[in-house]
Amino acid sequence: MYEMDEETTWICLEEIGSTNDYVKDRRSEKRNITVTAKRQTGGRGTKGRSFSSEEGGVYLSQLKFYENLPAKNAFTIMLTAAVAVCETLRFYGLTSLVKWPNDIHVNRKKICGILIENTFSGDKISSSVVGIGLNVNNPLPDELLNIATTMSKEGGKAYSVEEVTERLLGELSKQRTIEEYRRYFGYAGERVTLLIGDERVPATLLSVSDEGKLRVETATGERLLSSAEVSVRIEE
Ligand code: BTN
Fold first, then answer.
1. What is the distance between the alpha carbons of residues 230 and 126, in angstroms, rounded to a whole number?
2. Closest ligand 1 atom to the C-alpha of 42?
3. Nearest alpha-carbon partner for 130 in 168, 97, 160
4. Which of 14, 24, 56, 176 is the least crowded, having the fewest Cβ atoms under 10 Å away?
């Protein structure tokens, strides 16, 4: 266990079900905690999906408490994490982009997923858990080979997971803006399929609003969609 700064404790684990669940269980301690694990046995993604977490990747979660963060600014938490991952990859010479809202892609394949779980008090966010899974040298299951990638596949060499983790933690400590997120916003202008409930809607991706909503053009006109109501499928 290390003190990262005066307010944050960093815990390194060998194995855990999910680093997000680990810090969520410690919310009652009311202090900022970062936890990293070498592997997860029950890694979780968004929308109830699982997240493959073999040894060799970065699996980390940060629990943070806020005094006065309006719920309408929730997207700042996501954009800060997404830009931190993209900047980390850039340091290692890998060009990445955001597949809105929470995936990071390299060469059209997912290299990282972000899972954010907030608690609210009235119209304020009282705490957030930012969970990041970054594929570094870890093996990927066969079913993900067409849609996911790793730093080692893209860079053609193995990376030090400890170094990548420390760089990512450094990037996560910086404040980011929506403009920085927009610079990494991927697939703008491309035809995609939107999954909205049971509907599959063809659309063109346009941009992201200041609040983090997705702007798209559909046959019925322009629409602004939240991540809760839509999933985006790009062409492989
Ligand atoms: C997604 O791709 O939908 C989000 C994946 C988030 C995975 C990370 S790994 C660390 C943290 N612990 C989890 O169980 N999930 C997040």
1. 26
2. 14
3. 168
4. 14
Neighbours of 168 (CB within 10 A): 23
pTM of the model: 0.96
Quote the distance between the C-alpha of residue 10 and its chain's center: 19
Q: Which of 82, 213, 214 is nearest to 204 (CA)?
A: 214
**CB burial readout 98-132, b (16+ within 10 A) else e:** bbbbbbbbbeebbbbbbbbbbeeeeeebbbbbbbb
Distance 51 CA to ligand 1 centre (A): 6
Tokens of 13: 């684990």
Residue 196's pLDDT band (boundaries 50, 70, 90)? Answer: very high
Pocket test for ligand 1, best of 59, 60, 77, 136 (most atoms within 8 A of CB): 59
Confidence of residue 1 (pLDDT cuts 50, 70, 90): low
Q: Which atom of ligand 1 is nearest to the CA of 18?
A: 14
Question: What burial class does residue 217 get, using C-beta atoms within 10 Å of its C-beta: 0-12 exposed, 13-18 middle, 19+ buried?
Answer: middle
Q: Give the C-alpha separation, 212 to 219, whole Å.
A: 22
Cα–Cα distance, 112 to 172 (Å, whole number): 14
Q: Distance between CA 66 and CA 78 in Å, rounded?
A: 15
Residues 19-34 have pLDDT tens digits of 999 999 999 999 999 9
The atom number, within ligand 1, closest to the CA of 113 reads 2
The reply to whether ligand 1 has any atom less than 6 angstroms from the CB of 43 is yes
